[in-house]
Structure formats: C-alpha cells, structure tokens
Specification:
Layout lengths: L8 H5 L2 H10 L2 E5 L5 E5 L2 H9 L3 E2 L8 H5 L9 H4 L9 H12 L2 H6 L1 H17 L9 H6 L1 H11 L6 H12 L4 H27 L5 H7 L9 H32 L1 H9 L4 H12 L8 E3 L3 E3 L2 E3 L4 E4 L1 H4 L35 H7 L1
Length: about 375
C-alpha cells in the first residue's frame, strides 16, 4: 500500500477514502511519520475504543521504555518541563491524582456559568462577519471567529486581565501551531513568555484571589493534597492547547460541512431542537481531533491481528473510527438527527476522556 504524507494539507482535506481502505485491508497499519518515527495507526472503532481505555497502552512514553531507551529520550529545556508533564500525558496513579484535584475546580457548574459570556462573545465576533456577508471578497471565518473565540474564552476562564488578552492570543496562536521540531524551536520565545506570565499570574492570585479558574485550582484540595505550581502551569497550558484545537477545528470544519450539505442546514434552521444532536454529528463527521494523543505499548501487544512491540508508538485514528461502517449506518453521510451517535471525538469512556468536552460543545 502506497503511504500518503499524513501531515500534508492535501491528505488532511479528505483522509476518509484512505482510512476506509485501511479499515478493510490493514486495520492496524505500520506507518513512517514525517519526523521519521515509526507508528502503528489503529483505524477500526472497536480497536480505537480499546486503545483509548486499555492500560496496556501508556500515555507517558517513559512507562513503556527500558532503562536504555529512557537514556536516549530527547533533551527538553528546563522551563518547558512543567508543560511536558501535563495531565494528558500521564498515567495512573499520577493522572488520577491530578484529575481528582482539577475536577474540584473545573466543574460543570463553572462551565455553565460561562454560557452567557460565550453567547455574548459569539455575537460580538460574528457582527463584523455579518456586515460583510454577500460581498465578493468574503471574510475569513477562522481568523475572525474560530481562532479568537476559544483563545478569549480560555483567557477569561483563567483570569487573564483584558489588557493582556492581545499578547495572550499571540502566544496561543504560536504555541498551538507547533507541528514539527523546527516549529517548536520557533515557538520557544512564546513558550518562555507564556510560562513567565503564568507564574506571575499564579503569584498574583495567591495574594489576591479572584473568581477564576487559576484561583479555583490554587484552592483545590483532595485529602490534604494540592496542586504544585508546576502542575498549575501544566493545567493552564493543557487547557490552552487542547481547548484551542478542538474548538477551532469544530467551528471551521463544521461550517464547511453545513455549507456542503444545504439540505441539512435547512433542516437545522427549521428545527432548533436539532442543535444538540447536530453538534454531536459534526463532532463525529468532522473529527476535530483527527488522531488521539500518542500512546505506547507497555509490552508486546496484539490488536486487530497485528502485534505492536513494546515501546511502539500507537496512534488511535479517531477520524477513521468515527466513519467506521461496522459501527455507524451510512457513516459518510452527514445526518444532523443521527441517533444513536456514540462517536469517539472526546475519547469516550477512557480515563483520559476529555475534561473540557462540555466547554467545547458549548463553544461549538
């Protein structure tokens, strides 16, 4: 099978025919990534669901390495280490400890309290877009709406003062655009500035608490345990990166899907009760996060008839699982009334199920 460049814009524009072929012919496919690493792509729904839930696949690659492999792990600048050790990339018991503490602060009640502000912000960002509607040169939905919406919501959620939003947005855009080692080098100044700023903000909130997430994270306590400053920084960074990617992609790809399916758009206009199932279907159909974060086989592990060696990099392809004809009826059709719709966009059921899923749904 000829391998496409999985990171190319041409492939990303429509990966689904290739995923369908993989599901049929090579459901667990060995691939060489652009950075020359070998990875096993898992493409069928049931196998992807297993990878997301099974402790046999570690999130922290050190837990799948022998001492010799650990000694060869790449150097990371000291100021970035707190960001590297975030909740998304940890295994239990570290993960369950952090999640318990963060859940004390990042509550459904806190997110619901943001609804009015998010609705007002959406109207504020959409107003200039509506004014140029119908003009020949159009407008840029991503730059004018999809990008600033999550960045502003996250800034306000963390308690970043309004006068600092512009530089916070600049750092956000730089940090979330990293897709290679070269990009990471270019992003180092933004990462350094972001970490310094967050440390100062945490220090400020310790002295002068506010009604924001940073203050709530500082106060969060479980059985006498509290988050360290580095853990606070890691959570803020995780919220920025994870929340940004899902929301931007959902808005952009979801809008395109609706434009390409005017009959579904008209159905939604006629029946507002379809809004919630429509968001779920757009999450399934567009898969805002194409692949789950990296996992590593703790031991030689068989899945889908293929043995993945110990330490092997495993990529669960959510975009393929969400179009699996074994699980969804007519999976390549957009159906805003689809029911049931047990998509895997947020890693359904696993211990790493997206904590920010309610916020992403609200913004979407």
């Amino acid at each position: 099978m000829v391998a496409p460049d999985l990171a190319s814009p041409a492939f990303k524009a429509n990966p689904y025919p290739f995923y369908a072929r993989l599901r049929a012919e090579a459901p667990v496919w060995r691939a060489t990534l652009r950075d020359r690493r070998t990875a096993w792509l898992v493409t069928r729904y049931e196998d992807v669901a297993r990878v997301l839930k099974d402790d046999a696949f570690a999130k922290d690659k050190l837990n799948a390495m022998d001492p010799e492999q650990r000694a060869k792990t790449p150097w990371v600048p000291g100021f970035l280490e707190p960001l590297e050790r975030n909740m998304l990339d940890l295994d239990d018991p570290d993960h369950v400890r952090l999640r318990a503490l963060v859940s004390k602060a990042f509550t459904p009640r806190l997110i619901e309290r943001l609804r009015g502000r998010i609705e007002a912000l959406c109207e504020e960002l959409l107003d200039p877009i509506q004014r140029v509607r119908g003009r020949r040169n159009g407008t840029d939905l991503v730059a004018g709406y999809a990008l600033p919406l999550p960045a502003t919501v996250i800034a306000e959620l963390l308690g970043v003062p309004a006068e600092d939003h512009a530089k916070f947005h600049r750092w956000s855009n730089r940090l979330v655009s990293v897709s290679s080692g070269r990009d990471m080098l270019r992003a180092l100044p933004a990462a350094w500035a972001f970490v310094r700023y967050l440390r100062k903000l945490v220090e400020l909130r310790r002295a002068d608490p506010e009604d924001d997430l940073i203050t709530a994270l500082i106060r969060a306590e479980e059985a006498g345990d509290k988050l360290s400053e580095d853990e606070l920084l890691a959570m803020a960074f995780l919220l920025l990166v994870a929340g940004h990617e899902t929301t931007v992609n959902l808005i952009a790809s979801g809008t395109l899907a609706l434009l390409e399916h005017p009959e579904q758009t008209e159905k939604l206009r006629r029946d507002p009760s379809l809004v919630k199932p429509a968001v779920e279907e757009l999450l399934r159909y567009t898969s805002p996060v194409e692949m789950a974060t990296e996992r590593y086989a703790r031991e030689d592990e068989e899945i889908g008839g293929t043995t993945i060696p110990r330490g092997g990099l495993v990529l669960a392809v959510l975009g393929s699982a969400n179009r699996d004809e074994r699980h969804f009826e007519d999976p390549d059709a957009l159906d805003l009334a689809r029911d049931p719709n047990r998509h895997l966009a947020f890693g359904r059921g696993g211990v790493h199920h997206c904590l920010g899923a309610p916020l992403a749904r609200m913004e979407g």
